[in-house]
Amino acid sequence: MATCWQALWAYRFYLIVFFLPIFLLPLPILVPSKEAYCAYTIILMALFWCTEALPLAVTALFPLFMFPMMGIMDASEIIQRLFPLGSECQFVGMSVAAPHMPRGAMGGRVFLPLSSVPACQVCIEYLSDSNVLFVGGLMVAIAVEHWNLHKRIALRALLIIGVRPALLILGFMMVTAFLSMWISNTATTAMMVPIAHAVLKQLHSAKASGDLEEGRENPTFELQEQSPQKEVTKPDNTEVLPVPPAPSGPRAHLTQEQIRFTQGMSLCVCYAASIGGIATLTGTTPNLVLQGQVNSLFPENGNMVNFASWFGFAFPTMVILLLLAWLWLQVLFLGFNFRKNFGFGEEAQEKKQAAFRVIQTEHKLLGPMTFAEKAVTVFFILLVLLWFTREPGFFPGWGNLAFPNAKGESTVSDGTVAIFIGTILFIMPSNFPGLTQNPENPGELKAPPALLSWKVVNKKMPWNILLLLGGGFALAKGSEESGLSKWLGSKLTPLESVPPPAISIILCLLVAVFTECTSNVATTTLFLPILASMAQAICLHPLYVMLPCTLASSLAFMLPVATPPNAIVFSFGDLKVSDMARAGFLLNIIGVLVIALAMNSWSSSIFSLDTFPSWAHSNSTTHCLHSPANSTTAAP
Q1: CA dihedral defined by 165, 170, 175, 180, rounded to 10 degrees?
Q2: Which domain, by its residues, includes 58?
Q3: What is one process in the GO biological process aspect for this record (predicted)?
Q4: Does residue 102 lie in a domain region?
Q5: Which residue has the higher pLDDT, 234 or 277?
Protein backbone atom coordinates (compact mmCIF):
# COMPACT_ATOMS: atom_id res chain seq x y z
CA MET A 1 0.00 0.00 0.00
CA ALA A 2 2.82 2.36 0.86
CA THR A 3 4.46 1.61 -2.46
CA CYS A 4 1.22 2.51 -4.27
CA TRP A 5 0.98 5.87 -2.53
CA GLN A 6 4.65 6.56 -3.27
CA ALA A 7 4.07 5.81 -6.94
CA LEU A 8 1.04 8.13 -7.05
CA TRP A 9 3.04 10.86 -5.36
CA ALA A 10 5.88 10.39 -7.82
CA TYR A 11 3.40 10.79 -10.71
CA ARG A 12 1.42 13.60 -9.06
CA PHE A 13 2.27 16.23 -11.69
CA TYR A 14 1.27 13.94 -14.55
CA LEU A 15 -1.98 13.14 -12.77
CA ILE A 16 -2.72 16.82 -12.14
CA VAL A 17 -2.10 17.75 -15.78
CA PHE A 18 -4.31 14.89 -17.00
CA PHE A 19 -7.24 14.99 -14.56
CA LEU A 20 -7.53 18.71 -13.74
CA PRO A 21 -8.81 19.78 -17.19
CA ILE A 22 -11.36 16.92 -17.05
CA PHE A 23 -12.45 17.85 -13.52
CA LEU A 24 -13.13 21.45 -14.62
CA LEU A 25 -15.00 20.51 -17.81
CA PRO A 26 -18.51 20.94 -16.31
CA LEU A 27 -17.97 24.70 -16.28
CA PRO A 28 -17.77 25.22 -20.08
CA ILE A 29 -20.20 22.35 -20.79
CA LEU A 30 -23.00 23.50 -18.47
CA VAL A 31 -22.44 27.20 -19.26
CA PRO A 32 -21.67 27.33 -22.99
CA SER A 33 -20.60 30.97 -23.28
CA LYS A 34 -17.41 32.88 -23.98
CA GLU A 35 -17.29 34.08 -20.39
CA ALA A 36 -17.33 30.49 -19.11
CA TYR A 37 -14.75 29.40 -21.67
CA CYS A 38 -12.41 32.20 -20.62
CA ALA A 39 -13.03 31.45 -16.93
CA TYR A 40 -12.20 27.77 -17.60
CA THR A 41 -8.87 28.79 -19.16
CA ILE A 42 -7.99 31.19 -16.35
CA ILE A 43 -8.89 28.73 -13.56
CA LEU A 44 -6.96 25.94 -15.26
CA MET A 45 -3.88 28.13 -15.70
CA ALA A 46 -4.14 29.44 -12.14
CA LEU A 47 -4.19 25.91 -10.70
CA PHE A 48 -1.29 24.83 -12.90
CA TRP A 49 0.67 27.88 -11.75
CA CYS A 50 -0.13 27.20 -8.09
CA THR A 51 0.71 23.50 -8.22
CA GLU A 52 3.65 23.99 -10.65
CA ALA A 53 2.54 20.84 -12.44
CA LEU A 54 3.95 22.43 -15.59
CA PRO A 55 6.67 25.07 -15.87
CA LEU A 56 5.13 28.52 -15.59
CA ALA A 57 6.28 29.51 -19.06
CA VAL A 58 4.60 26.45 -20.61
CA THR A 59 1.34 27.17 -18.80
CA ALA A 60 1.55 30.75 -20.10
CA LEU A 61 1.28 29.39 -23.66
CA PHE A 62 -2.22 27.98 -23.10
CA PRO A 63 -4.06 31.06 -24.50
CA LEU A 64 -2.31 30.53 -27.84
CA PHE A 65 -4.37 27.43 -28.57
CA MET A 66 -7.28 27.61 -26.11
CA PHE A 67 -8.56 31.08 -27.02
CA PRO A 68 -8.77 30.44 -30.79
CA MET A 69 -10.29 26.97 -30.25
CA MET A 70 -12.93 28.42 -27.92
CA GLY A 71 -13.72 31.35 -30.19
CA ILE A 72 -12.61 33.97 -27.69
CA MET A 73 -10.22 35.56 -30.20
CA ASP A 74 -11.02 34.52 -33.77
CA ALA A 75 -9.97 35.37 -37.30
CA SER A 76 -12.58 38.04 -37.98
CA GLU A 77 -11.28 40.21 -35.14
CA ILE A 78 -7.79 39.96 -36.58
CA ILE A 79 -8.86 41.08 -40.03
CA GLN A 80 -10.75 44.04 -38.54
CA ARG A 81 -7.60 45.06 -36.76
CA LEU A 82 -5.45 44.66 -39.89
CA PHE A 83 -7.94 46.36 -42.27
CA PRO A 84 -10.09 48.69 -40.17
CA LEU A 85 -11.83 50.34 -43.17
CA GLY A 86 -13.70 47.17 -44.04
CA SER A 87 -12.65 44.07 -45.92
CA GLU A 88 -13.96 41.23 -47.96
CA CYS A 89 -12.09 38.22 -46.58
CA GLN A 90 -11.35 34.87 -48.08
CA PHE A 91 -9.23 32.19 -46.50
CA VAL A 92 -8.24 28.63 -47.28
CA GLY A 93 -6.07 29.42 -50.00
CA MET A 94 -6.24 32.30 -50.54
CA SER A 95 -6.08 35.89 -49.89
CA VAL A 96 -7.51 38.85 -48.09
CA ALA A 97 -9.04 41.49 -50.30
CA ALA A 98 -8.81 45.00 -48.91
CA PRO A 99 -10.85 47.48 -50.99
CA HIS A 100 -9.30 50.50 -49.31
CA MET A 101 -5.78 49.44 -50.33
CA PRO A 102 -4.27 50.54 -53.65
CA ARG A 103 -4.47 47.80 -56.24
CA GLY A 104 -1.17 46.67 -57.63
CA ALA A 105 0.09 43.73 -59.54
CA MET A 106 -1.82 41.40 -57.19
CA GLY A 107 -5.10 43.19 -57.68
CA GLY A 108 -5.22 44.60 -54.18
CA ARG A 109 -4.91 41.21 -52.54
CA VAL A 110 -2.57 40.53 -49.65
CA PHE A 111 -1.73 36.91 -48.94
CA LEU A 112 -1.77 35.76 -45.30
CA PRO A 113 -0.52 32.33 -44.23
CA LEU A 114 -3.49 30.27 -43.06
CA SER A 115 -1.55 29.03 -40.04
CA SER A 116 -1.10 32.57 -38.73
CA VAL A 117 -4.76 33.56 -38.76
CA PRO A 118 -6.48 31.94 -35.76
CA ALA A 119 -3.94 32.90 -33.11
CA CYS A 120 -2.61 36.12 -34.58
CA GLN A 121 -4.40 38.42 -32.17
CA VAL A 122 -3.32 36.31 -29.23
CA CYS A 123 0.28 36.11 -30.44
CA ILE A 124 0.66 39.88 -30.56
CA GLU A 125 0.15 40.00 -26.78
CA TYR A 126 3.35 37.97 -26.37
CA LEU A 127 5.49 40.79 -27.74
CA SER A 128 3.87 43.94 -26.42
CA ASP A 129 5.77 47.10 -25.54
CA SER A 130 6.18 45.92 -21.95
CA ASN A 131 7.87 42.75 -23.20
CA VAL A 132 10.19 44.85 -25.35
CA LEU A 133 11.01 47.03 -22.34
CA PHE A 134 11.78 43.89 -20.36
CA VAL A 135 14.21 42.62 -23.03
CA GLY A 136 15.94 45.98 -23.54
CA GLY A 137 16.30 46.70 -19.84
CA LEU A 138 17.77 43.28 -19.21
CA MET A 139 20.30 43.73 -22.01
CA VAL A 140 21.79 46.69 -20.17
CA ALA A 141 21.57 44.84 -16.84
CA ILE A 142 23.38 41.85 -18.37
CA ALA A 143 26.15 44.15 -19.60
CA VAL A 144 26.54 45.62 -16.09
CA GLU A 145 26.76 42.12 -14.64
CA HIS A 146 29.02 40.77 -17.42
CA TRP A 147 31.72 43.39 -16.83
CA ASN A 148 31.47 43.01 -13.03
CA LEU A 149 30.44 46.63 -12.58
CA HIS A 150 27.83 45.67 -9.96
CA LYS A 151 30.48 44.12 -7.72
CA ARG A 152 32.63 47.26 -7.92
CA ILE A 153 29.63 49.41 -6.96
CA ALA A 154 28.78 47.12 -4.03
CA LEU A 155 32.28 46.98 -2.55
CA ARG A 156 32.86 50.71 -2.99
CA ALA A 157 29.59 51.53 -1.22
CA LEU A 158 30.44 49.22 1.68
CA LEU A 159 33.81 50.92 2.09
CA ILE A 160 32.04 54.26 2.40
CA ILE A 161 29.33 53.08 4.81
CA GLY A 162 31.59 51.09 7.13
CA VAL A 163 31.25 47.77 8.94
CA ARG A 164 29.77 48.52 12.36
CA PRO A 165 27.05 45.90 12.98
CA ALA A 166 24.00 48.17 12.62
CA LEU A 167 25.53 50.18 9.79
CA LEU A 168 26.76 46.98 8.14
CA ILE A 169 23.21 45.67 7.86
CA LEU A 170 22.04 49.06 6.59
CA GLY A 171 24.92 49.20 4.10
CA PHE A 172 24.21 45.77 2.67
CA MET A 173 20.51 46.60 2.41
CA MET A 174 21.14 49.90 0.65
CA VAL A 175 23.62 48.39 -1.83
CA THR A 176 21.44 45.36 -2.51
CA ALA A 177 18.31 47.48 -2.98
CA PHE A 178 20.09 49.85 -5.36
CA LEU A 179 21.49 47.03 -7.50
CA SER A 180 18.13 45.26 -7.47
CA MET A 181 16.53 48.36 -8.99
CA TRP A 182 18.46 47.70 -12.20
CA ILE A 183 19.56 44.06 -12.37
CA SER A 184 17.89 40.78 -11.45
CA ASN A 185 16.96 40.26 -7.79
CA THR A 186 18.39 36.76 -8.08
CA ALA A 187 21.74 37.89 -9.47
CA THR A 188 22.01 40.63 -6.86
CA THR A 189 21.37 38.20 -4.01
CA ALA A 190 23.74 35.57 -5.40
CA MET A 191 26.51 38.19 -5.49
CA MET A 192 25.87 39.92 -2.16
CA VAL A 193 25.39 36.88 0.11
CA PRO A 194 28.97 35.57 -0.30
CA ILE A 195 30.37 39.04 0.38
CA ALA A 196 28.23 39.30 3.52
CA HIS A 197 29.41 35.95 4.85
CA ALA A 198 33.04 36.76 4.10
CA VAL A 199 32.76 39.93 6.17
CA LEU A 200 30.95 38.03 8.93
CA LYS A 201 33.77 35.52 9.09
CA GLN A 202 36.19 38.33 9.92
CA LEU A 203 33.86 39.87 12.49
CA HIS A 204 33.41 36.52 14.23
CA SER A 205 36.99 35.30 13.97
CA ALA A 206 39.12 35.33 17.08
CA LYS A 207 42.25 35.42 14.88
CA ALA A 208 41.38 38.37 12.73
CA SER A 209 44.91 39.15 11.57
CA GLY A 210 45.68 35.52 10.75
CA ASP A 211 42.51 35.13 8.77
CA LEU A 212 43.24 38.33 6.91
CA GLU A 213 46.55 37.00 5.61
CA GLU A 214 44.72 33.96 4.24
CA GLY A 215 41.73 35.96 3.06
CA ARG A 216 41.95 34.77 -0.51
CA GLU A 217 41.53 31.19 0.66
CA ASN A 218 38.08 31.94 1.95
CA PRO A 219 35.69 30.04 -0.36
CA THR A 220 33.07 32.73 0.05
CA PHE A 221 35.26 35.09 -1.94
CA GLU A 222 35.05 32.91 -5.03
CA LEU A 223 32.37 35.03 -6.65
CA GLN A 224 33.35 34.26 -10.21
CA GLU A 225 31.99 30.71 -10.19
CA GLN A 226 35.42 29.12 -10.38
CA SER A 227 34.49 26.29 -8.03
CA PRO A 228 31.61 23.82 -8.40
CA GLN A 229 28.30 25.25 -7.35
CA LYS A 230 25.27 23.54 -6.00
CA GLU A 231 21.94 24.17 -7.67
CA VAL A 232 18.64 25.09 -6.13
CA THR A 233 15.44 24.83 -8.11
CA LYS A 234 13.72 28.15 -8.54
CA PRO A 235 10.37 28.22 -6.71
CA ASP A 236 8.43 29.12 -9.85
CA ASN A 237 9.75 26.00 -11.61
CA THR A 238 11.15 27.99 -14.54
CA GLU A 239 14.89 27.72 -14.17
CA VAL A 240 17.68 26.37 -12.03
CA LEU A 241 19.42 28.93 -9.90
CA PRO A 242 23.18 28.82 -9.42
CA VAL A 243 23.91 29.38 -5.74
CA PRO A 244 27.38 30.39 -4.58
CA PRO A 245 29.07 27.76 -2.45
CA ALA A 246 28.23 28.08 1.22
CA PRO A 247 31.07 28.80 3.58
CA SER A 248 32.78 25.66 4.77
CA GLY A 249 33.73 24.65 8.26
CA PRO A 250 31.78 23.98 11.44
CA ARG A 251 29.86 26.76 13.13
CA ALA A 252 29.85 25.23 16.58
CA HIS A 253 32.39 27.82 17.72
CA LEU A 254 29.94 30.65 17.05
CA THR A 255 28.01 32.03 19.98
CA GLN A 256 24.23 32.40 19.88
CA GLU A 257 24.66 36.14 19.46
CA GLN A 258 26.93 35.64 16.44
CA ILE A 259 24.52 33.15 14.88
CA ARG A 260 21.66 35.64 15.22
CA PHE A 261 23.77 38.37 13.64
CA THR A 262 24.55 36.00 10.74
CA GLN A 263 20.85 35.28 10.32
CA GLY A 264 20.05 38.98 10.29
CA MET A 265 22.73 39.65 7.67
CA SER A 266 21.42 36.86 5.43
CA LEU A 267 17.82 38.02 5.67
CA CYS A 268 18.70 41.67 5.13
CA VAL A 269 20.14 40.80 1.70
CA CYS A 270 17.17 38.82 0.36
CA TYR A 271 14.63 41.25 1.83
CA ALA A 272 16.46 44.26 0.37
CA ALA A 273 16.56 42.56 -3.05
CA SER A 274 12.77 42.16 -3.05
CA ILE A 275 12.19 45.68 -1.69
CA GLY A 276 14.60 47.34 -4.13
CA GLY A 277 12.93 45.75 -7.14
CA ILE A 278 9.72 47.73 -6.60
CA ALA A 279 11.42 51.11 -7.09
CA THR A 280 11.75 51.01 -10.89
CA LEU A 281 9.49 49.82 -13.67
CA THR A 282 12.08 47.27 -14.80
CA GLY A 283 13.19 46.31 -11.28
CA THR A 284 10.89 43.29 -11.03
CA THR A 285 8.55 41.59 -13.48
CA PRO A 286 5.19 42.33 -11.74
CA ASN A 287 5.75 46.04 -12.41
CA LEU A 288 5.88 45.33 -16.14
CA VAL A 289 2.82 43.08 -15.85
CA LEU A 290 0.92 46.07 -14.43
CA GLN A 291 2.06 48.41 -17.17
CA GLY A 292 1.19 45.93 -19.90
CA GLN A 293 -2.25 45.12 -18.53
CA VAL A 294 -3.13 48.77 -17.94
CA ASN A 295 -2.20 49.57 -21.55
CA SER A 296 -4.10 46.52 -22.81
CA LEU A 297 -7.27 47.01 -20.77
CA PHE A 298 -7.31 50.82 -20.97
CA PRO A 299 -5.64 51.81 -24.26
CA GLU A 300 -6.73 55.44 -23.85
CA ASN A 301 -4.97 55.94 -20.50
CA GLY A 302 -2.35 58.25 -22.07
CA ASN A 303 0.67 56.19 -21.01
CA MET A 304 -0.01 56.99 -17.38
CA VAL A 305 2.31 54.25 -16.09
CA ASN A 306 5.78 55.01 -17.44
CA PHE A 307 9.26 54.90 -15.99
CA ALA A 308 9.17 58.43 -14.55
CA SER A 309 5.69 58.23 -12.99
CA TRP A 310 6.39 54.80 -11.53
CA PHE A 311 9.68 55.97 -10.02
CA GLY A 312 8.02 59.00 -8.45
CA PHE A 313 5.45 56.74 -6.82
CA ALA A 314 7.52 53.65 -5.92
CA PHE A 315 10.95 55.04 -4.99
CA PRO A 316 9.78 56.87 -1.82
CA THR A 317 7.78 53.76 -0.92
CA MET A 318 10.89 51.63 -1.30
CA VAL A 319 13.02 53.98 0.84
CA ILE A 320 10.51 54.04 3.71
CA LEU A 321 10.00 50.28 3.62
CA LEU A 322 13.76 49.66 3.47
CA LEU A 323 14.44 51.82 6.54
CA LEU A 324 11.61 50.21 8.52
CA ALA A 325 12.87 46.75 7.52
CA TRP A 326 16.35 47.72 8.75
CA LEU A 327 14.98 48.86 12.10
CA TRP A 328 12.93 45.67 12.48
CA LEU A 329 15.87 43.38 11.63
CA GLN A 330 18.16 45.31 13.95
CA VAL A 331 15.73 44.98 16.86
CA LEU A 332 14.99 41.31 16.11
CA PHE A 333 18.56 40.10 15.62
CA LEU A 334 20.78 42.67 17.38
CA GLY A 335 18.56 43.76 20.24
CA PHE A 336 18.22 47.20 21.82
CA ASN A 337 21.87 47.67 22.84
CA PHE A 338 22.51 50.48 20.36
CA ARG A 339 25.96 51.25 21.77
CA LYS A 340 27.04 47.73 20.90
CA ASN A 341 25.07 47.66 17.63
CA PHE A 342 26.95 50.69 16.33
CA GLY A 343 30.31 49.13 17.19
CA PHE A 344 31.61 51.06 20.19
CA GLY A 345 34.25 49.38 22.33
CA GLU A 346 37.87 48.27 21.85
CA GLU A 347 37.08 44.68 20.83
CA ALA A 348 34.45 45.83 18.36
CA GLN A 349 36.88 48.30 16.83
CA GLU A 350 39.49 45.59 16.29
CA LYS A 351 37.06 43.28 14.52
CA LYS A 352 35.62 46.18 12.56
CA GLN A 353 39.06 47.02 11.18
CA ALA A 354 39.66 43.40 10.20
CA ALA A 355 36.37 43.18 8.30
CA PHE A 356 36.99 46.57 6.70
CA ARG A 357 40.36 45.39 5.38
CA VAL A 358 38.73 42.33 3.84
CA ILE A 359 36.38 44.51 1.81
CA GLN A 360 39.25 46.86 0.97
CA THR A 361 41.41 43.97 -0.23
CA GLU A 362 38.62 42.58 -2.37
CA HIS A 363 38.02 46.02 -3.89
CA LYS A 364 41.72 46.46 -4.71
CA LEU A 365 41.77 43.10 -6.49
CA LEU A 366 39.30 44.50 -9.01
CA GLY A 367 41.99 46.93 -10.16
CA PRO A 368 41.27 50.24 -11.87
CA MET A 369 38.13 50.65 -13.95
CA THR A 370 38.53 49.29 -17.46
CA PHE A 371 37.37 50.98 -20.64
CA ALA A 372 34.46 48.51 -20.81
CA GLU A 373 33.28 49.34 -17.28
CA LYS A 374 33.43 53.07 -17.99
CA ALA A 375 31.52 52.64 -21.26
CA VAL A 376 28.82 50.51 -19.65
CA THR A 377 28.49 53.08 -16.86
CA VAL A 378 28.00 55.88 -19.39
CA PHE A 379 25.36 53.95 -21.34
CA PHE A 380 23.59 52.92 -18.14
CA ILE A 381 23.36 56.52 -16.93
CA LEU A 382 22.26 57.63 -20.40
CA LEU A 383 19.48 55.02 -20.41
CA VAL A 384 18.16 56.15 -17.03
CA LEU A 385 18.22 59.82 -18.08
CA LEU A 386 16.38 59.04 -21.31
CA TRP A 387 13.78 57.07 -19.40
CA PHE A 388 13.18 59.89 -16.93
CA THR A 389 12.98 62.67 -19.51
CA ARG A 390 11.08 60.91 -22.31
CA GLU A 391 7.57 61.79 -21.13
CA PRO A 392 7.71 62.80 -17.46
CA GLY A 393 4.23 64.35 -17.48
CA PHE A 394 4.93 67.49 -15.44
CA PHE A 395 6.98 69.06 -18.29
CA PRO A 396 7.32 68.29 -22.02
CA GLY A 397 9.86 65.51 -22.48
CA TRP A 398 12.17 64.92 -25.41
CA GLY A 399 9.75 62.27 -26.70
CA ASN A 400 6.93 64.84 -26.93
CA LEU A 401 9.15 67.45 -28.57
CA ALA A 402 11.16 65.31 -31.01
CA PHE A 403 8.73 62.49 -31.84
CA PRO A 404 5.14 63.73 -31.35
CA ASN A 405 2.05 62.07 -32.80
CA ALA A 406 -1.17 63.79 -33.84
CA LYS A 407 -2.20 64.17 -30.20
CA GLY A 408 1.16 65.59 -29.15
CA GLU A 409 2.10 62.39 -27.33
CA SER A 410 5.43 60.66 -27.75
CA THR A 411 5.58 57.99 -30.46
CA VAL A 412 8.56 56.35 -28.76
CA SER A 413 8.21 54.35 -25.56
CA ASP A 414 10.45 53.25 -22.71
CA GLY A 415 10.90 49.98 -24.60
CA THR A 416 12.14 51.89 -27.65
CA VAL A 417 14.82 53.59 -25.56
CA ALA A 418 15.89 50.34 -23.87
CA ILE A 419 16.27 48.48 -27.17
CA PHE A 420 18.18 51.44 -28.68
CA ILE A 421 20.75 51.50 -25.87
CA GLY A 422 20.88 47.70 -25.82
CA THR A 423 21.64 47.63 -29.53
CA ILE A 424 24.49 50.13 -29.10
CA LEU A 425 26.10 47.76 -26.60
CA PHE A 426 26.44 45.20 -29.40
CA ILE A 427 28.24 47.81 -31.53
CA MET A 428 30.54 49.51 -29.02
CA PRO A 429 33.95 47.79 -28.63
CA SER A 430 35.00 46.78 -25.12
CA ASN A 431 38.43 48.36 -25.59
CA PHE A 432 39.86 51.11 -27.76
CA PRO A 433 41.91 50.66 -29.82
CA GLY A 434 42.49 47.25 -28.21
CA LEU A 435 43.97 45.54 -31.26
CA THR A 436 45.66 42.21 -30.50
CA GLN A 437 47.25 39.39 -32.44
CA ASN A 438 44.81 36.73 -33.57
CA PRO A 439 45.99 33.47 -31.91
CA GLU A 440 44.44 31.41 -34.70
CA ASN A 441 46.19 33.36 -37.47
CA PRO A 442 49.53 34.80 -36.30
CA GLY A 443 50.28 38.13 -37.92
CA GLU A 444 46.60 39.03 -38.27
CA LEU A 445 45.18 41.75 -36.04
CA LYS A 446 42.07 41.01 -34.03
CA ALA A 447 39.55 43.64 -32.89
CA PRO A 448 38.28 43.57 -29.28
CA PRO A 449 34.83 42.05 -28.63
CA ALA A 450 31.81 44.30 -28.25
CA LEU A 451 30.46 45.27 -24.84
CA LEU A 452 27.74 42.69 -25.30
CA SER A 453 27.55 39.53 -27.38
CA TRP A 454 24.52 37.45 -28.29
CA LYS A 455 26.11 34.41 -26.64
CA VAL A 456 26.16 36.22 -23.29
CA VAL A 457 22.63 37.59 -23.70
CA ASN A 458 21.23 34.25 -24.79
CA LYS A 459 22.77 32.57 -21.74
CA LYS A 460 21.55 35.08 -19.14
CA MET A 461 18.25 36.30 -20.63
CA PRO A 462 15.27 34.66 -18.87
CA TRP A 463 13.25 33.95 -22.00
CA ASN A 464 10.72 32.00 -19.93
CA ILE A 465 9.70 35.20 -18.14
CA LEU A 466 9.06 36.79 -21.53
CA LEU A 467 6.54 34.01 -22.29
CA LEU A 468 5.05 34.38 -18.82
CA LEU A 469 4.53 38.10 -19.38
CA GLY A 470 2.90 37.43 -22.73
CA GLY A 471 0.60 34.83 -21.22
CA GLY A 472 -0.55 37.33 -18.62
CA PHE A 473 -1.30 39.99 -21.23
CA ALA A 474 -3.16 37.41 -23.34
CA LEU A 475 -5.30 36.46 -20.33
CA ALA A 476 -6.16 40.10 -19.70
CA LYS A 477 -7.09 40.62 -23.34
CA GLY A 478 -9.12 37.41 -23.41
CA SER A 479 -11.06 38.46 -20.30
CA GLU A 480 -11.99 41.68 -22.04
CA GLU A 481 -12.88 40.12 -25.41
CA SER A 482 -14.94 37.31 -23.88
CA GLY A 483 -16.95 39.60 -21.61
CA LEU A 484 -15.69 37.93 -18.44
CA SER A 485 -14.45 41.29 -17.15
CA LYS A 486 -17.91 42.82 -17.59
CA TRP A 487 -19.53 39.89 -15.80
CA LEU A 488 -17.11 40.14 -12.89
CA GLY A 489 -17.67 43.89 -12.71
CA SER A 490 -21.43 43.48 -12.44
CA LYS A 491 -21.00 41.04 -9.53
CA LEU A 492 -18.68 43.34 -7.58
CA THR A 493 -20.89 46.45 -7.44
CA PRO A 494 -21.84 45.88 -3.73
CA LEU A 495 -18.27 46.82 -2.83
CA GLU A 496 -19.14 50.44 -3.66
CA SER A 497 -20.29 50.90 -0.07
CA VAL A 498 -16.90 49.87 1.34
CA PRO A 499 -14.37 52.72 1.86
CA PRO A 500 -11.68 52.60 -0.88
CA PRO A 501 -8.74 52.57 1.60
CA ALA A 502 -10.23 49.50 3.28
CA ILE A 503 -10.62 47.77 -0.09
CA SER A 504 -7.00 48.55 -0.95
CA ILE A 505 -5.59 47.24 2.35
CA ILE A 506 -7.67 44.03 2.27
CA LEU A 507 -6.62 43.29 -1.30
CA CYS A 508 -2.96 43.97 -0.46
CA LEU A 509 -3.11 41.50 2.44
CA LEU A 510 -4.75 38.91 0.18
CA VAL A 511 -2.08 39.31 -2.51
CA ALA A 512 0.74 39.29 0.07
CA VAL A 513 -0.50 35.95 1.42
CA PHE A 514 -1.03 34.52 -2.07
CA THR A 515 2.44 35.48 -3.29
CA GLU A 516 4.09 33.51 -0.47
CA CYS A 517 3.06 30.31 -2.23
CA THR A 518 2.91 31.38 -5.86
CA SER A 519 5.18 33.25 -8.25
CA ASN A 520 4.71 37.02 -7.96
CA VAL A 521 4.36 37.21 -11.75
CA ALA A 522 1.57 34.63 -11.74
CA THR A 523 -0.08 36.41 -8.81
CA THR A 524 -0.26 39.77 -10.56
CA THR A 525 -1.27 38.12 -13.84
CA LEU A 526 -4.29 36.53 -12.18
CA PHE A 527 -5.38 39.37 -9.91
CA LEU A 528 -4.92 42.54 -11.99
CA PRO A 529 -7.65 41.95 -14.63
CA ILE A 530 -10.13 41.13 -11.85
CA LEU A 531 -9.12 44.23 -9.89
CA ALA A 532 -9.52 46.39 -12.98
CA SER A 533 -13.08 45.09 -13.49
CA MET A 534 -13.89 45.65 -9.83
CA ALA A 535 -12.62 49.23 -9.96
CA GLN A 536 -14.76 49.98 -13.01
CA ALA A 537 -17.81 48.45 -11.37
CA ILE A 538 -17.59 50.64 -8.26
CA CYS A 539 -16.37 53.75 -10.12
CA LEU A 540 -12.95 53.68 -8.48
CA HIS A 541 -9.72 54.69 -10.19
CA PRO A 542 -8.31 51.35 -11.48
CA LEU A 543 -4.77 52.23 -10.39
CA TYR A 544 -6.00 52.75 -6.81
CA VAL A 545 -6.26 48.98 -6.43
CA MET A 546 -3.90 47.76 -9.17
CA LEU A 547 -0.84 49.70 -7.99
CA PRO A 548 -0.86 48.59 -4.33
CA CYS A 549 -1.53 44.96 -5.21
CA THR A 550 1.37 44.99 -7.65
CA LEU A 551 3.70 46.21 -4.91
CA ALA A 552 2.20 43.71 -2.44
CA SER A 553 3.14 40.86 -4.78
CA SER A 554 6.79 41.66 -3.99
CA LEU A 555 6.24 41.31 -0.23
CA ALA A 556 7.33 37.67 -0.22
CA PHE A 557 9.29 37.60 3.04
CA MET A 558 8.01 34.62 5.02
CA LEU A 559 8.91 31.41 3.16
CA PRO A 560 12.05 30.16 1.34
CA VAL A 561 9.93 29.10 -1.65
CA ALA A 562 8.28 32.50 -1.98
CA THR A 563 10.96 34.07 -4.17
CA PRO A 564 14.41 33.15 -5.55
CA PRO A 565 16.37 35.50 -3.21
CA ASN A 566 14.78 33.78 -0.21
CA ALA A 567 15.71 30.38 -1.63
CA ILE A 568 19.33 31.40 -2.18
CA VAL A 569 19.73 32.77 1.34
CA PHE A 570 18.00 29.77 2.89
CA SER A 571 20.21 27.33 0.99
CA PHE A 572 23.27 29.14 2.32
CA GLY A 573 22.58 27.82 5.80
CA ASP A 574 22.18 29.30 9.31
CA LEU A 575 18.44 29.80 8.79
CA LYS A 576 15.31 27.86 9.67
CA VAL A 577 11.89 28.34 8.14
CA SER A 578 10.69 29.60 11.52
CA ASP A 579 13.40 32.30 11.53
CA MET A 580 12.31 33.57 8.12
CA ALA A 581 8.61 33.35 8.97
CA ARG A 582 9.04 35.23 12.26
CA ALA A 583 10.96 38.05 10.60
CA GLY A 584 8.82 38.14 7.48
CA PHE A 585 5.38 38.15 9.10
CA LEU A 586 5.67 41.58 10.68
CA LEU A 587 7.57 42.86 7.64
CA ASN A 588 4.61 41.90 5.46
CA ILE A 589 2.29 43.90 7.71
CA ILE A 590 4.71 46.86 7.65
CA GLY A 591 4.87 46.63 3.86
CA VAL A 592 1.09 46.74 3.46
CA LEU A 593 0.85 49.78 5.76
CA VAL A 594 3.62 51.61 3.87
CA ILE A 595 1.87 50.90 0.58
CA ALA A 596 -1.40 52.23 2.02
CA LEU A 597 0.44 55.38 3.09
CA ALA A 598 1.84 55.83 -0.41
CA MET A 599 -1.52 55.30 -2.10
CA ASN A 600 -3.26 57.90 0.06
CA SER A 601 -0.59 60.59 -0.10
CA TRP A 602 1.94 61.36 -2.84
CA SER A 603 0.65 58.83 -5.40
CA SER A 604 -2.74 60.57 -5.51
CA SER A 605 -1.22 63.64 -7.14
CA ILE A 606 0.99 61.61 -9.49
CA PHE A 607 -1.83 59.46 -10.91
CA SER A 608 -4.88 61.64 -10.03
CA LEU A 609 -6.34 58.83 -7.94
CA ASP A 610 -9.05 61.05 -6.44
CA THR A 611 -11.05 60.99 -9.68
CA PHE A 612 -12.62 58.30 -11.83
CA PRO A 613 -10.80 58.82 -15.16
CA SER A 614 -12.57 59.13 -18.47
CA TRP A 615 -10.44 56.40 -20.05
CA ALA A 616 -11.81 53.94 -17.47
CA HIS A 617 -15.32 55.43 -17.64
CA SER A 618 -15.53 54.74 -21.38
CA ASN A 619 -15.09 51.02 -20.74
CA SER A 620 -17.17 50.93 -17.56
CA THR A 621 -20.11 48.56 -17.52
CA THR A 622 -22.07 50.43 -14.87
CA HIS A 623 -23.40 53.94 -14.54
CA CYS A 624 -21.27 55.88 -12.07
CA LEU A 625 -23.03 58.13 -9.62
CA HIS A 626 -20.26 60.70 -10.09
CA SER A 627 -19.02 62.18 -13.30
CA PRO A 628 -15.41 61.55 -14.27
CA ALA A 629 -14.51 65.10 -13.54
CA ASN A 630 -16.13 65.38 -10.14
CA SER A 631 -15.93 61.86 -8.73
CA THR A 632 -13.96 61.62 -5.52
CA THR A 633 -14.75 58.04 -4.64
CA ALA A 634 -11.05 57.13 -4.62
CA ALA A 635 -10.17 59.69 -2.04
CA PRO A 636 -9.60 58.25 1.42
Answers
A1: 130
A2: 1-74
A3: cellular response to lithium ion
A4: yes
A5: 277
